[in-house]
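re: the backbone from monday

yeah here it is again, tokenized this time
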């Protein structure tokens, strides 16, 4: 990277459970770069958690505050997980960096959540994430300081519509709604409406960044792999891939729309005062993420989280080295090649 011009970016953060530690690593590296200015963040599920922690950290202490808040959240998550029965077995550790497919506790948990709902397994709706978020994030500071535009996505259970919580609506319940996997948690009620994980409708949604910020560069931190090498054959592999397809579908649709509008703008077929020509960038680790099964998304073991953190930092470092100078000038992701 050369020069010292501000590099203004919107962030679009995908969800993926414990895989959100990859995003932690990406953001930790980006916030080391003084020239980077984050204008808006759109997040879903684990992406919503990371987004909220970052917004709080930026409000409390700028770039270093964001890095410190993310580190505190993910390290506290690992400390809590150390008491959980959901741990990778020795055979899991030998065969994968994060899968728990051979863990007796995971096999029992997976079977139980297929037979019983969270209303039966957890009638008191206990969610340790609530207390953890309240300990790490000052939501009053987040809402009133407005260090960055923030948009969190959830799915309305009864209407099938996307709900985007904007800055003034961000509470701990909004974050929990965005991260509410229906086989794990009871639907989150907010103002008489009930919400599940936002990944079903937007993972993450790009449109709030288009309409509500003046920044044309969007960096997508992608967790769920789009391309895999082999056709899934085992039952669990098929279910895992179905989940990935469902959680990638909304992003793929938005990318098609963005590409279509971009082509029309190039041909001067649209009013350029009403439509924005976006510059799209991505940071991902598809090859490393593809072999990770659904079980790994619930694996908050410290070694695994820090493995993903290191991977995220490495990928972000490559982006900073090779592409940060392009921010504000051109896209560094070929939408057709990657998404179409």
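seq for it, each position gets an aa:
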């Amino acid at each position: 990277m050369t020069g010292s011009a501000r590099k203004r970016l919107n962030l679009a953060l995908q969800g993926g459970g414990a895989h959100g530690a990859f995003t932690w690593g990406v953001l930790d590296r980006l916030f080391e770069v003084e020239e980077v200015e984050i204008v808006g963040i759109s997040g879903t599920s684990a992406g919503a958690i990371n987004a909220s922690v970052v917004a709080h950290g930026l409000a409390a202490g700028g770039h270093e505050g964001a890095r410190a808040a993310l580190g505190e959240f993910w390290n506290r998550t690992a400390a809590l997980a150390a008491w959980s029965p959901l741990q990778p077995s020795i055979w899991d550790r030998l065969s994968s960096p994060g899968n728990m497919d051979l863990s007796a506790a995971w096999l029992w948990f997976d079977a139980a959540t297929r037979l019983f709902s969270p209303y039966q397994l957890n009638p008191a709706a206990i969610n340790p994430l609530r207390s953890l978020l309240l300990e790490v994030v000052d939501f009053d500071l987040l809402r009133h300081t407005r260090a960055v535009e923030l948009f969190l996505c959830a799915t309305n259970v009864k209407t099938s519509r996307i709900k985007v919580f904007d800055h003034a609506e961000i509470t701990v319940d909004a974050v929990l709604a965005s991260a509410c996997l229906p086989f794990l948690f009871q639907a989150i009620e907010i103002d008489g409406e009930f919400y599940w994980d936002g990944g079903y409708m937007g993972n993450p949604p790009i449109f709030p960044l288009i309409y509500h910020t003046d920044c044309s560069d969007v960096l997508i931190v992608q967790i769920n792999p789009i391309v895999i090498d082999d056709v899934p054959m085992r039952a669990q592999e098929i279910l895992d891939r179905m989940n990935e397809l469902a959680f990638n579908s909304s992003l793929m649709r938005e990318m098609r729309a963005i590409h279509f509008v971009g082509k029309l703008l190039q041909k001067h077929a649209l009013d350029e005062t009403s439509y924005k020509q976006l510059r799209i960038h991505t940071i991902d680790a598809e090859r490393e993420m593809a072999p990770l099964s659904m079980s790994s998304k619930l694996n908050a073991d410290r070694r695994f989280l820090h493995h993903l953190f290191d991977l995220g930092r490495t990928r972000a470092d490559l982006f900073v080295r090779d592409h940060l100078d392009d921010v504000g000038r051109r896209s560094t992701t070929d939408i057709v090649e990657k998404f179409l």
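The radius of gyration is 19 Å. The longest helix spans residues 46-81.
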